[in-house]
Each structure stands twice: as structure tokens, then as C-alpha cells.
Amino acid sequence: MSSGNVLLMTRLRQIRVVGLMDIRRTLGARRGFGLIVFALLPVALAVLRAMTLPDSLRADLGRTSTELANIFYILQLRFIVYFACAFLFVRSFRGEILQRSLHYLFLAPVRREVLAVGKYFGALGSALATLLPSTTLLAVIFYLAHGSELGLGLLFTSRGLSHLAAYLAATALACVGYGALFFLAGLFFRNPMIPAGLYLGFEVLAPFLPVTLRVLSVAQHLRAILPVKLSWGPLDMVGSPFGPFVSVLLLLVVSAAAIALAAWRADHLEITYSDG
Amino acid sequence: MSADTIVFESVSKFYGEVLGVNRIELSIEAGLTGLVGPNGSGKSTLMNLMTGLLMPDRGTIRILGIDPGDPETLFRTVGYCTQWDTFPPGATGETFLVNTLLLHGESPGRAREKASSMLRKVGLEDAERRQIAAYSKGMKQRIKLAHSLCHDPRVLVLDEPLNGLDPTGRAEIIELFTALAAEGRHVLVSSHILHEVDLIADSVVMIHGGKVVAEGAIREVREEIIDKPIQVLIRCDRARDLAARVFALEHVVQARLLDGDFSVVVATRDSANFFLDLARIVTDDQLTVESVMPADENVRAVYDYLIGNEGVPT
After folding, report:
1. Does ipTM surpass 0.95 in this model?
2. What pLDDT does B312 receive?
3. Closest CB from B75, B88, B103 relative to A101
4. Of A110, A129, A190, B169, which is least surrounded by CB within 10 A?
């Protein structure tokens, strides 16, 4: 194996070690339980809907698909995934600074950039482990409301499965995109919840902003890959300007740029613990 | 730059407007070196600069030829026991060390083995499964030491490592440092307790107000302070007579009796001639001398001479 490959393997192994340490610390702690409960809120809503769904609507699967798409986009993506990612990715570095434990990572024979990437993937792993099951349960319970035969019958058709795959992909991409932005905020701001709140405002206003700015909106890109077209009346005219492929590509590019900037920042970070 | 030396070349660090350290020029050889100075003098800043936790505003630092900005190489060679008593939440003694060793590239099995061995070495084998948050201050100090030692570094940087340890623990840890230095490693120990450094260090770096005021072996540093008379403690059978005789010598500026009639502390501006004169007086007056030893060749006295009483450490 060439020295370049050895170096690459070493770095990948370091990323895995840092990431796994992060996942264990997040999901193994009490706050991991809180995160799981938070991620299950839409599922609880779906259960409530299933219990109160009028008999007249139990055969209307078309309406269910639209409702699921709306609930998924507005509640799951824009609220649950957004705030779960804010919690996980912001505290990834900033939490270590507040707990005064970051120096232990910085005293390891690992490049700071590699540590940053490892921490990002650790938080991403925790986010996916929590939010993908939540999305799956949300979809399954939405369809189960129509009875196991009818509902699950539809879910397990190729169309149903492709919808579920699209929701899972959107969830994963939301974690990648929001995660990268919150991770970056955690490295640059003493109180990253302020930029997180500002970004939420930007996301709300994004449909009305110029296309060049909309490139930075994760929600705009995710809307393009939803399996069901959302219909919001007059607001339909401000839907995503990009096709699904371009949206995914742009989201990945923006995320990679944010992670690269975060890695640069980590490389220049000093440990003083005085700025909290 | 030497690959066997820790070198600071004109290093300055400011925290905004506040001075951390200023124009530090240092060269530290292998062995046990004490870094002494009062709280806030810049000891921790110097150590954090050495380990890349801080970056200098000016100057360069090399640790056995390694740039502190290259952690991948640096921390294969350097272990650092910091001043902070904080730990990753939920970590036990074992998981803390195992994670550290995994980051050092050990396999999980080997990491557990080494962690266990290191916990035995610092006397924490019975507490390896307990959360560090529940450790006493002394135990936390030991686990930090284990963290800095577990990868067998050639350079050990230890910021106030004896804080919180009981006397037995201190003796054990001092013995460990001495053994590590005897193996040819660089062991740099900071302390604001000067007599502690006196006990363990081969040489000292004295720092005050962010500046190095002296460095080297204590005796060499003392000898360089020419404007302060050398003090010599003499224990003999007729100290009062000896005091009267030596006080008549031109170069003796003070002769002070201690312990009644059995000890005298003599301050002289010419130590070489003093010892010749002393030998002559002892022979002429037929005094019985039990011991002759320097009274101010210790870190505290030297530090006191160098910076006056301002902020003299304990």
C-alpha cells in the first residue's frame, strides 16, 4: 500500500473513532433519550390522527399521501429535524468548549480538520439514528390508519416504497445540510442558537428571495425531492427553482463548503475556555 | 533547531490587550525541569503554547524539532497534563483512557490492556469503572497524569501535577517523574510551590510577569546573581566565636546566629575567598565543624532575589 493510501486509511480510521465516540456520548447519555422523545413527536401526532380519523376518510389514500407530505415537510423537516440538528451539531464543538473537555481531543495525534470531520459525522450518525426511524414510523402509521391490509398494502407497493425512500432521503439530506450549517455556527458563535434562529427566519423568507440566495436554503432544496408536490395555493409560484438532481447536488456542495470552513476554523481554534 | 531540545525563539502571546508571555527565549534539555512562578505569571500560557492549545502571536516554538501546529506528529512525542479538572461527561477512568488510546491508533483490545496497566500505575485500578465526575481531586489529578502518560511520550508537560495529591501520593508521583527523567525524557513540571520544585527539578525556568527571569540549574542561576551576597550555613560547636571571627573579614557582610550557639549563617560577597578564610579560622581556633552548606541555593531564595518580594510564590 502506498504511503498516500496508508495516510488516507489512517485519517478515515481517526474519523471513525472520533465519530463513534461522539455517537456513544450523545445517544448513551440522558440527553439522547430526550432527543428520541422529541423525534417521536410527529409519530405521536400520527397515532392521534389514526385514532381520530373519520371512517369516511379511511379509504381516501390519495388525501393521506398529501397530508403525509405536508406533515413531513412542515413538521418533520422544518421543525423536528431542524431543531434536532441544531441541538446535535451546535453542541458538537460548542458543547465541548462549554464542558471544558475539548482539549482532550486537541491533545490527540489527530489533525484538527480530521477531528472536525469526525465530530460532524458523529453528530450526523446520532441524527440519522434518531430521525430516520422517526420518519419511517411517521409514514407507516399514516398508512396504517387505513387498516393494515389497505394501508400497508399501498406502502409496500413500488410506489409506496419509493415514497418512503424519498422521505428517508429527504430526512438524511436535511440532517446533512442543516447539520453542516449548525456545525459551522457552533464553531464561530459563542451562542449559536442566535444564528440558528436567524437561519430559521431565512428559511421562511427564502421562497421570496433571489435565486442566488435560495441556493443557501436547505428547505428549498428538500422541497424539490419530495415525492408528492405540495400545493400551497398562491405560494406554489415560489416553489424550488431547481430540479431534484440539481437541488441534491447544490445541497451537498453547500454542506461540504460549510464543513470545510468549520474544519479550517477548528484548525485555528485556541483553547482558553474564557469565552464560553 | 535541535531535535533533542525544546526551543522557544522570541515567543510572545497576548490575550487581546493583556500580556500572556513576552519575548520568551528558552532552550530546555532532557531531564526534570521546573517551571516556577506565581499564579498568573505565564506558566500555563507557556505550556499551552508548547502543546498547540494556544498559538504564538510572534516567534517560533519547536518541541524536539516538531512544530506544535502539527498535532499528528507532536502528540506521538508529547503528553500534556493540563490545569483543567474537567472531563468528558459520563467518562469512566477506563473509557477515558481507552478513547485516548484509540485516538492514538491502538486497537480496541490493546487500548483496553494499556489503559488497565496505566490505571494500575497511577493507583486507580479499583476506580476504573467509576465515573470520573465522582473521583476525588487527587484521583482526578492521577487520571489526568495517566492520560498524559498512556502513550509513552518522550516529552511530558505537567501543569501543577501535584495539586490535590496527599503526601503519599505526592511522593509516589515525584518518584515517577524522577524515574521518567532518568530515562532521558523531558519532564517539564510547573508549580507555584517552590520548595516542591527544589525537591524534584534538575533545572528551573523562572517566570514572572510573562517573562523568563532566569533558567538553568539552581546553583548556576544563584551564582549569576552577583549583587546578592552568597549565604552559607555553618553548624559548629562554637558558632558565636566563629561569627565574631568571620564578621571581621572584609568580604563578609553579615553573620547571624541560629539555634543558640550551634549554627551561624554568613553572607559573603566573595565565596571563593570565604571558604579559604573559613578553613584557616577553623584550624587556628580549633573549631569542630559539623556541616557547611549553601543557605540560599534554593528556588525560593533565588526567585526572591530576582523579582524582590513582589508576588513571590509560596
Report:
1. no
2. 46
3. B88
4. A190
Q: How far is CA A194 from CA A90, B80, B147, B307, in A?
A: 11, 35, 36, 48
CA neighbours closer than 13 Å in the CB half-sphere of residue B156: 31
Considering only CB atoms, A108 lies closest to which of B82, B88, B100, namely B100
Q: For chain A, what is the domain count?
A: 1
One-letter amino acid at B121 equals K
Q: Are B277 and B292 in contact (CB under 8 A)?
A: no
Identify the bridge partners of residue B58 per DSSP, sorted by sequence position: B12
A157 by Cβ neighbours in 10 Å (0-12 / 13-18 / 19+) ranks as: exposed
Task: Tell me, yes or no, whether B58 lies in a domain.
Answer: yes
B147 with B94, same domain? yes
Crossing angle for the helix pair A30-39 and A41-52, to the nearest 10 degrees: 40
Give the domain CATH number at B253. Answer: 3.30.70.100
Cα A237 from Cα B146, distance rounded (Å): 63
Size of interface A-B (CB pairs under 8 A): 76
If asked whether residues B283 and B148 sit together in one domain, one would say: no
Contact of B64 with B5, CB cutoff 8 Å: yes
Q: What are phi and psi of B212, to 5 degrees?
A: -80, 120
CB contact under 8 A, B71 and A101: no
Shortest Cα distance, chain B CAs vs residue A40, angstroms = 25
Bridge partners, residue B66, by sequence: B63
- Give the number of domains in chain B: 2
Residue type, B238: R
Reported as a single tens digit per residue, the pLDDT across B90-138 is 899 999 999 999 999 999 999 999 999 999 999 999 999 999 999 999 9
Amino acid in the structure at residue A141:
I
Q: Is residue B1 part of a domain?
A: no
Same domain (yes/no): B39, B10? yes
Residue of B99, B148, B157 for testing the chain A interface, max A β-carbons within 10 Å: B99
Do B37 and B310 form a contact (C-beta atoms < 8 A)? no
The stretches in chain A having pLDDT less than 70 are: 231-241, 274-276
Encode chain B in three state secondary structure. CCCCCEEEEEEEEEECCEEEEEEEEEEECCEEEEEECCCCCCHHHHHHHHCCCCCCCEEEEEECCECCCCHHHHHHHEEEECCCCCCCCCCEHHHHHHHHHHHCCCCHHHHHHHHHHHHHHCCCHHHCCCEHHHCCHHHHHHHHHHHHHCCCCCEEEEECCCCCCCHHHHHHHHHHHHHHHHCCCEEEEEECCHHHHHHHCCEEEEEECCEEEEEECHHHHHHHCCCCCEEEEEEECCHHHHHHHHHCCCCEEEEEEECCCCEEEEEECCHHHHHHHHHHHHHHHCCCEEEEEECCCCHHHHHHHHHCCCCCCC
Q: For residue B254, what are the domain limits?
A: 229-295
- Residue B293, classified by CB atoms within 10 Å of its CB into exposed (0-12), middle (13-18) or buried (19+), is exposed
A146-182: per-residue pLDDT in tens?
A: 877 777 787 888 888 999 999 999 999 999 999 999 9
**Contact in structure between B313 and B38 (CB atoms under 8 Å):** yes
- Nearest 5°: phi and psi at B28? -115, 120
